[in-house]
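ARCHIVE CARD
SHELF: 3
SLOT: left
DATA:
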Amino acid sequence: MDVYRTDEEQVEALKKWWQENGMSAVIGLVVGLGAIFGWRMWQEQQLLQVEAASEMYQQMVIAVRDDNDPDQAQKTAEQIHNNYESTVYAVFAKLLLAKLAVDAQDLESATVHLRWSLDNNQDESLQHPIRLRLARILLARDKSDAASNIIDIKQTGQFGAAYDELRGDIKHHDGDIEAARIAYQQALTKTLASRNDISVLEIKLDGLGRIDFQ
């Protein structure tokens, strides 16, 4: 049995529903479409920003690698930082600036660039390399306490050996030979397990004397 017995009743019911709900339905539709198109526009805008930042970063690399023009690289990096700070290329630009600063023996500027990179990086694969690089620069500046604090983390992933080796360097710098020897030995054990090159670690250990853990 039909809910409405005649076409006229169906039309009247539709008119009544529209009077009661039509405006809210239109508003809901507009809001929904606005959200969809707004999200798409935001995604497109983000993609355009990434593409523009990528192109500028390539220009920066060329300025360093091919043109040997660190001043131009610096200018391009500033543009990336000012206009595309939220992209990963801002981090890449800062890392390249840090390298240029190290090459120029400007370790203080390198520290600034690396700290910014560490604080603003969202790419998990870059976290450990940035952290380790920053700690090495701090150690080179005789700031062993700051370097030690930077690498004082529990989750080191596949970089465990690198962290242990750097801890050994810090302890050696501070004159704690026993702690340095232990850290180097731990790094050597992890490096052997990963089948990576152990020559540098062996040189460091030979200079301090090895420990037999057996």
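SLOT: right
DATA:
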Amino acid sequence: MNLTVVRAWALILFISGAGIGYYMFSTTHSDTGRHFSYGLDLVGGSHLVYEADTSEVDSANVNEAMSALRDVIEQRVNVFGVSEPLVQVEKASVLSESDKTERLIVELPGVTDLEKAIAMIGATPSLEFKLVGDPVGTSTERTYIETGLTGKYLTRANLQFSGTQSGGYANEPLVMVDFDAEGKELFANITGDNIGKQLAIFLDDRLISEPVINEEIRGGTAVISGGFTAEKARELVRNLNLGALPVPIELASTESVGASLGMETLDKGTVAGLYGISIVMLFLTLWYRLPGLIASVALVLYLILNLAVYLFIPVTITAAGLAGLVLSSGMAVDANILIFERMKDELRRGKSVRDAVMEGVARAWLPIRDGNLTSVLSAVVLFWFGTASVQGFALTLIIGILLSMFTAIVVTRTFLLAVAGISENKILRVLFLSGVDKK
């Protein structure tokens, strides 16, 4: 590659890294800018564990019921203004004393009103059917009229797809709603007296659908259509089933994490990381000389890119996530060491500095690739099967490994080639070769 082009790319990489770093610093220190999202263990908050009673739910529908429960609870905790709440479903341990195997884990970073949160989360979802009335006076807002039809009369809802019918579409998603005996009679009266009007459906006072009543329905089974996508229809089914047959939950345990403890963890982790990275950069520079100094610059760029990803995705930073960042930083250094050791071998053979850089990167690529890919696969397994803290560690590790490969193969290589092309003399060879005699 032409030396001028290499130097141009090196300059672009350096300026880009500095620009990203400056932008992150300025925006995170601004009241209107972006900010990093921190987990419960770093900023404090509340950790709630609920046990769900799924004994009345068919085993084939347990996962769907728990998924619907999680979605509604997640919507509720956002009422508190919670940043990045974590609501997840997990199986209880086989060693657990409780006979309830399904658990709901709720983490609310920054929430101090624990009693209010417990009361809101534990409330039974409210499903209501209301008629859409005409606007009052000159107002453009529609009114909703109580019908007395609620989720307690709903037996179940399910998703079906229509066949080829006149006036309709083939394979159109339809939501089928079944009522019990009492609800069947009430629903028949409502539909018979209000043909052509809309029947609004509310879940927790939130409007989720407004189907039109086309005819009197006396069989107790209603068909809701209207151009649904399969995903939207499936979501409506989940919401209806949740309101009709809510999964009872019981608070099993609570834990409050103080903000002072969380910030102490963050502060000490940050200081420890800075000390560790500084020592590594000092070692690289003393042992590998000019390449070590270049690797140190690449390592700083690597950290900037990691933090940029955390900021813009965003990634919730936890103590376990910081551990993943530190581990991947070590792997980023390891990739540079592999390149430098291969370069030393080539320099001992009498090759020019530029050729040694090219050959060293080429020879180091395969072990770097294989080592990193096996680590990524391990992290993917951890993310797939792990709990929340393990997933945080695995996610930051995956991001870090991928970025470390980029900085080692692209950034370090580009900087080395830019410097190696200055001149070919003894001083440059001394700067590139550590204190090991040439064989």
